[in-house]
Write a structure and sequence with these properties.
mainly alpha; disordered N terminus; plastid; repeat; TPR-like_helical_dom_sf; PPR_rpt
């Protein structure tokens, strides 16, 4: 902005300044209007005013300035624009506006204070004469009503017209400069103030301090304050304390507050508010409480602004109980008071308390404003309270706030967190002016709720609309691509991010995740290695990628490298690691991770406790899983369900049912997953009657419609109990079309119980569904092989090969020492292979001699000679793992192995005999369940 030289506008004696005396001389008046005072009651003043004007004889005796000016001032103080317009109408009626610069200026001032900028402009532009006070009033109106650019433009006009300015002008202009953070313009005004001698004015100095502070030039703000001759004015201290409180360093604001008190300057309301604002987090806890004590000693305790600042301070330092105590002691509360505590509950994760507090607001007769609505919508989303969210959404529609971008964005996020994307999409459509956050929120919501196509479609619209994608949005798009397992699309987005320079750490971590989800572990590893400064999320992403792709050993190796690099894992890392140890059944490593969690003092939240329980259960240690369960005070549905599932996994169906009843006694309502775990437990324990009953309880008592997975469990339950006709009848009578899993369950039962006719029906139904699972093809092939239909076996295998599917080879593993040893069927790759096969031969001879063991070749589904079938059985992977366990572990040690496929009947018999004649407990986890072999007996009761 170009500024005219100071000399061109400095007022001189030859330049008369328009004042009330020179512009509007008044005749001698007889009657004076008795105005209550500046602090008087507006209603009272209007009654006096109405009474005065009701007698027309009084009109010619009144001094219009004395009547209208104080009324306009009182309207300005009360921000009563409607009353001000009534006075303005009277002034026009009596023709005193055009004849009085003084009253016109008062009108401009009043409208500006009331926020009626258009009315102030109209009065200003219609004035034939204006003095410096008029210009100041209009500039001040712009500056005070968030129109700083227009304030600066009007100031430029004032200078061009050569109107003299004063310290008040500079104060208003400096406020505008601070609002737009125009330090260049502010510095010019500073220079002008210095040249014209206004820098010695306390008001100008205070405005300079505030302007530099808002322009983030704290050093210059401090210098101006320290250069002030007189520092006994509390406003000066308020300016500099507020500057440091807002723009930092906060500790300096508090040091100045203490210095001010030491030299005897009494703090005002604004001082306390600024000092409390400086207490930004928990590190300021003691100082904040010290300021609170100072307020208690002063007479500022009853000020609502101070109370609001106190509540906000206690919220920031994490003392929600203190904030609540102050709130409930307050007699006078405004919207800010309620919203401060409400947002505090949200910030500290007290979402349920926030919801209760919101209803108290309504009971108190407060209408929720935009701030409180945004807070409570966010709380509903975090709690997953869809009905509450819908109720508040309906209220926003009623008051017309649903089209507001901030409210609309929060509504979208709430519906996304409640997994209700249909309503989220409608809320998005209702937003009038969608900002970038609107698009980011809806795309993220679709991506996280498995609506991948919708997320990608909206991302295309973003590009069509010319908006630039940021790292967050690209991350959501990558999530959608990885959800679709679309490797080429991930590569495309990866290339896009490189071309557009979007390669920050967060995005690189997302790319590692996306490649891992798409099964391309090599690309994920390459991106991971290329990250120069890896954070805990980078390492966790790589660990998760390995776990997701079944590479649990590699995941553990990355973890140990991470520890060597000095990176502390977080709870997400540990969850991924526990998942990897669960898949490997490596209890030693699982215990190591458990110990690490305890040593580091990490909080056992639901997710971590659940992962530990699941790990111990899948590693065969049901007792340790139950210890964690009983040691958790507040048990969520997730923990109850995991423990029920653990019992089912180990064949303890009755214990699972008992636990379910205990859960009901604790008033925890089961969901679909709970019933799935319960039916699974019944299925693996032969509890046919209980399984049927729980399906009915699920539908009648809890109004939960069974999923196809529940029907699979029921068919499996009936089939295992050899109720094959009942199972087949149930499948045919189902209201939904039977899935491949349902026919597979029936077919598996037919194979176990040698029901060849029903087995062939199920096999054909399975083939008609165009299978995409190699295991189902193998099951069908085995059924045909059992009947000697080798041509049909070959056809099935050709179909499987044509579909690009491969049979998973039988694989077993055992943890010995600190290493996992893996064996395939007839594997000879192990370093001690010769010793293993020699020992296996000795074991088989002993079992034949002492236990009467004879290989049952009906479990070999290959068209080969009988002797070769026997040798194939001897080479099954679990036998090699057990043999190595006998070689490598001390006598009496429990041998724990895992197998990726269902154990065959002959190997099951082999395990029972080993446990009896070698005096070892064997714990085997196969693809279906756990088997605990001890003394020649299996925990499954030969029912698996």
């Amino acid at each position: 902005m170009s500024l005219l030289p100071c000399s061109s506008i400095t007022p001189t004696l030859s330049q008369p300044i328009q004042t009330r005396a020179t512009t509007n001389p008044k005749p001698y008046t007889v009657l004076k209007f008795m105005f209550p005072s500046r602090k008087g009651n507006l209603q009272e003043a209007f009654r006096s005013f109405t009474a005065l004007f009701s007698d027309t004889r009084n009109l010619h005796l009144l001094d219009s300035d004395d009547v209208f000016a104080p009324l306009l001032e009182l309207c300005a103080i009360s921000k009563a624009a409607s009353r001000g317009r009534q006075i303005h109408a009277h002034m026009i009626k009596h023709n005193v506006v055009s004849s009085s610069v003084f009253l016109s200026t008062k009108l401009v001032f009043m409208y500006g204070k009331c926020g009626s900028i258009s009315d102030a402009e109209k009065v200003f532009e219609e004035m034939f004469e204006r003095n410096v006070f008029t210009w100041n009033s209009m500039i001040g109106a712009y500056a005070s009503n968030e129109e700083p650019l227009r304030a600066l433009e009007l100031y430029r006009r004032m200078r061009v017209f050569g109107v003299p300015f004063d310290s008040c002008t500079l104060t208003c202009v400096l406020k505008a400069c601070g609002a737009v953070e125009d330090i260049r313009c502010g510095s010019e005004i500073h220079g002008l103030a210095f040249k014209c001698g206004y820098d010695s004015s306390v008001f100008v100095s205070n405005s300079l301090v505030a302007m530099y502070a808002k322009c983030n030039d704290i050093d210059r703000a401090r210098k101006i304050f320290e250069g002030m001759n007189e520092r006994s004015d509390v406003v000066s201290w308020n300016s500099v304390i507020s500057a440091f409180a807002i723009n930092g360093p906060s500790i300096e604001a508090l040091r100045l507050f203490r210095e001010m008190r030491n030299i005897g300057v009494l703090p005002s309301t604004y001082t306390y508010v600024a000092a409390l604002q400086a207490c930004k987090d928990s590190s300021f806890r003691e100082l904040g409480m010290e300021i609170h004590a100072s307020i208690l000693k002063s007479n500022q305790l009853n000020d609502v602004y101070v109370h609001n600042a106190l509540i906000s301070m206690y919220v920031r330092i994490g003392k929600m109980r203190k904030a609540a105590v102050i709130f409930y002691k307050l007699h006078k509360k405004d919207d800010v008071t309620w919203n401060s505590l409400l947002t505090g509950f949200i910030q500290h994760g007290l979402f349920f308390e926030a919801l209760q507090f919101f209803y108290k607001m309504q009971e108190a007769g407060l209408k929720p404003d935009q701030v409180s609505l945004i807070s409570i919508i966010a709380a509903s989303g975090r709690l997953g309270y869809l009905l509450n969210g819908k109720e508040i959404h309906a209220y926003t529609i009623k008051i017309g706030l649903d089209s507001n971008s901030q409210v609309g964005n929060t509504i979208i996020d709430m519906y996304a967190k409640c997994c209700c994307m249909t309503y989220a999409g409608r809320a998005f459509a209702k937003i009038t002016c969608k900002d970038f956050i609107s698009w980011t929120t809806i795309i993220a919501g679709y991506a996280r709720n498995d609506c991948y196509i919708e997320a990608l479609e909206l991302s295309r619209q973003v590009l069509i609309n010319g908006m630039e994608l940021d790292a967050n949005m690209i991350g959501s798009i990558l999530l959608a691509c990885s959800g679709l397992k679309c490797f080429l699309k991930v590569k495309e987005i990866h290339g896009f991010s490189i071309r557009h320079g979007r390669s920050d750490l967060v995005l690189q971590n997302s790319i590692v995740d996306a490649y891992g989800e798409c099964g391309n572990i090599n690309y994920a590893a390459r991106i991971f290695e290329s990250i120069e400064w890896k954070d805990v999320v980078s390492w966790t992403s790589m660990i998760s990628s390995y776990v997701h792709n079944g590479l649990a050993i590699e995941a553990l190796e990355v973890f140990y490298t991470m520890i060597d690099k000095g990176i502390e894992p977080d709870s997400i890392t540990l969850l991924s690691l526990l998942s990897s140890t669960s898949s490997l059944s490596t209890m030693r490593k699982g215990k190591e991770i458990h110990g690490y969690i305890v040593r580091k003092g990490l909080i056992f939240d639901d997710s971590l406790s659940n992962a530990l329980m699941d790990m111990y259960a899948r590693c065969g240690n049901l007792e340790e899983a139950y210890k964690i369960f009983t040691g958790t005070r507040s048990k969520s549905l997730l923990l109850w369900t995991t423990m029920i599932n653990a019992y089912g996994l180990h064949g303890h169906g009755k214990e699972a049912i008992e636990l379910f009843y205990k859960m009901e006694e604790q008033r925890v309502s089961p969901d679909h997953i709970t019933f799935l775990a319960l039916l699974y437990a019944c299925s693996h324990s032969g509890l046919t009657h209980d399984g049927k009953r729980f399906i009915q309880i699920m539908k009648s008592k809890y109004q939960l419609e069974p999923w196809p997975e529940h029907y699979v469990c029921l068919v499996d339950l009936l089939g295992r109990a050899n109720h094959l006709e009942d199972a087949y009848h149930f499948v045919k009578s189902m209201r939904i079309a039977p899935t491949a899993e349902i026919w597979c369950a029936l077919l598996g039962a037919c194979r176990v119980h040698s029901n060849k006719e029903l087995g062939e029906i199920a096999a054909q139904k399975l083939l008609d569904l165009n299978l995409d699972n190699a295991g189902n093809y193998v099951l069908v092939s085995n059924v045909f092989a059992a009947r000697g239909k080798w041509d049909d076996v070959e056809d099935v295998r050709l179909r499987m090969k044509g579909s690009g599917l491969k049979k998973n080879p039988g694989c077993s593993w055992i943890e010995v020492g600190n290493q996992v040893h893996t064996f395939l069927a007839r594997d000879k790759s192990h370093p001690e292979s010769s010793k293993i096969y020699q020992k296996l031969g000795q074991i088989i001879e002993k079992l034949k001699r002492e236990g009467g063991y004879v290989a049952n070749t009906k479990f070999v589904f290959h068209n080969v000679a009988e002797e070769e079938k026997v040798q194939m059985l001897y080479g099954h992977s679990e036998r090699l793992a057990i043999t190595y366990g006998l070689l490598a572990t001390a006598d009496g040690t429990t041998i724990r192995i895992s197998k990726n496929l269902r154990v065959c009947g002959d190997c099951h018999n082999f395990c029972k005999l080993v446990s009896k004649f070698f005096g070892r407990k064997l714990v085997m986890r196969d693809a279906n369940r756990f088997h605990h072999f001890d003394g020649g007996v299996c925990s499954c009761g030969d029912f698996w």
